[in-house]
């Protein structure tokens, strides 16, 4: 993959999209009654307060669920260019003593396996929740310039550390390959379809893709479609539901994440993958500014080496370079607020 400004913009979108997909769902996460979500919150278009009866009580709007908290630990443990599984494992184990958020079954099972002396390659719980794969956007970002097969291996490895179910690990590979296609400029629908034809030993990706696409083709609304596909954490339901949202709303980062949130259930696991893919497709400039500004971990994400602070006002950068005759030439790079989406060169005669 090139290191062009456009691909950097996509990588920044992927990174922020992963976390926004989790944070936006915090208040309504694991509410399976779609009418209740509408009654309690109305249409969720920004971060909301967490109800007292939530699994995530004590969290504040703009915070993450336990999925996002694990993902920020993954981000903190890495440096661009190489995936470090032992570093992630150490940081992940260190986050749980005194953790005040929800601790799910996958976490408990993996911690128990670590306690019995198993390595990070062996520690995965038996959980078949898609959430283990949902962290993969960080791996794709970290390894942006590495060969695809290295990225796939790292995504599978980070997933298997907490989720040993073969279908979850295969799902991590599927969405990693989709992400790399999208980062290389392929349309979302085409990328999803192409990777659905790949043969996995344990995962009927083609069948799950077909189920989602049939509902899109029928024009079924998102809440109804996801209720039909299944709103639970389990990979056979969550995979197809994630694909549906991407197919139905791939044109709009904002619309996709709002519709995913309003559908309920395990919206956070779906949201992280939807946010990663759409952030990669549309770039950071497609993300509503209030979703970035309102995030509790905003400073941590914006200062990570894989991201760059967004300009809040236009800037002029002086550039000096030497031509083939050894002469020093001056130029000016006029940069807009936000991330550029294209560049134009204006050259006058040099005398």
Task: Characterise this structure.
This protein is mainly alpha-helical and 351 residues long. 51% of the residues lie in helices and 5% in strands. It contains 16 helices and two strands. It has helices at 5-23, 34-41, 66-76, 85-94, 105-115, 136-142, 148-160, 166-183, 188-196, 205-217, 222-229, 235-249, 253-263, 267-282, 289-293, 298-302; strands at residues 315-322, 328-335. The chain has a two-stranded antiparallel ribbon with strand order 1-2. Helix 12 runs antiparallel to helix 13 (253-263). The protein is globular. The two termini are 38 Å apart.
Strand order, sheet with most strands: 1-2
Look at the structure and give the mean pLDDT: 92
Number of strands: 2
Largest sheet: 2 strands, antiparallel
The total count of helices amounts to: 16
Give start-end ranges of low-pLDDT stretches.
1-6, 308-312
Percent helix range: 40-55%
The helix/strand order is HHHHHHHHHHHHHHHHEE
Distance between the termini: 38 Å
Our Rg estimate from Cα atoms comes to 21 Å
Overall 3D shape: globular
Proportion of residues in extended strands: under 5%
Computed structural class: mainly alpha
Structural features:
351 residues, mainly alpha, 2 strands, globular, disordered N terminus
What layout of secondary structure does this protein have?
Blueprint: H1 5-23, H2 34-41, H3 66-76, H4 85-94, H5 105-115, H6 136-142, H7 148-160, H8 166-183, H9 188-196, H10 205-217, H11 222-229, H12 235-249, H13 253-263, H14 267-282, H15 289-293, H16 298-302, E1 315-322, E2 328-335
Antiparallel strand pairs: 1-2
């Amino acid at each position: 993959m090139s290191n062009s400004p456009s691909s950097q913009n996509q990588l920044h979108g992927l990174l922020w999209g992963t976390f926004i997909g989790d944070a936006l769902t915090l208040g309504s996460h694991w509410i399976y009654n779609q009418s209740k979500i509408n009654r309690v919150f109305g249409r969720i278009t920004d971060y909301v307060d967490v109800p007292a009866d939530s699994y995530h009580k004590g969290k504040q709007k703009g915070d993450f669920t336990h999925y996002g908290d694990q993902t920020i630990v993954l981000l903190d443990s890495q440096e661009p260019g190489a995936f470090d599984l032992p570093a992630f494992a150490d940081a992940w184990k260190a986050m749980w003593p005194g953790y005040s958020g929800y601790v799910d079954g996958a976490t408990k099972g993996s911690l128990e396996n670590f306690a019995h002396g198993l390595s990070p390659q062996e520690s995965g719980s038996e959980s078949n929740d898609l959430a283990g794969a949902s962290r993969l956007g960080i791996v794709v970002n970290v390894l942006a310039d590495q060969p695809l097969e290295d990225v796939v291996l790292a995504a599978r490895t980070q997933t298997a550390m907490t989720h040993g179910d073969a279908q979850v690990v295969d799902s991590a590979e599927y969405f990693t390959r989709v992400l790399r296609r999208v980062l290389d400029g392929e349309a979302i629908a085409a990328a999803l379809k192409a990777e659905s034809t790949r043969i996995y030993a344990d995962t009927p990706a083609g069948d799950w893709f077909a189920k989602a696409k049939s509902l899109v083709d029928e024009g079924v609304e998102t809440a109804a479609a996801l209720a039909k596909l299944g709103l639970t954490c389990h990979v056979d339901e969550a995979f197809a539901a994630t694909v549906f949202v991407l197919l139905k709303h791939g044109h709009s980062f904002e619309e996709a994440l709002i519709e995913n949130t309003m559908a309920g259930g395990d919206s956070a696991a779906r949201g992280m993958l939807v946010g990663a893919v759409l952030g990669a497709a549309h770039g950071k400039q497609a993300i509503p500014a209030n979703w970035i500004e309102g995030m509790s971990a905003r400073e941590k994400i914006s200062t990570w080496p894989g991201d760059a602070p967004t300009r809040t006002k236009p800037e002029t950068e002086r550039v000096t370079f030497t031509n083939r005759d050894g002469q020093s030439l001056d130029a000016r790079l006029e940069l807009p607020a936000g991330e550029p989406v294209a560049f134009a060169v204006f050259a006058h005669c040099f005398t």
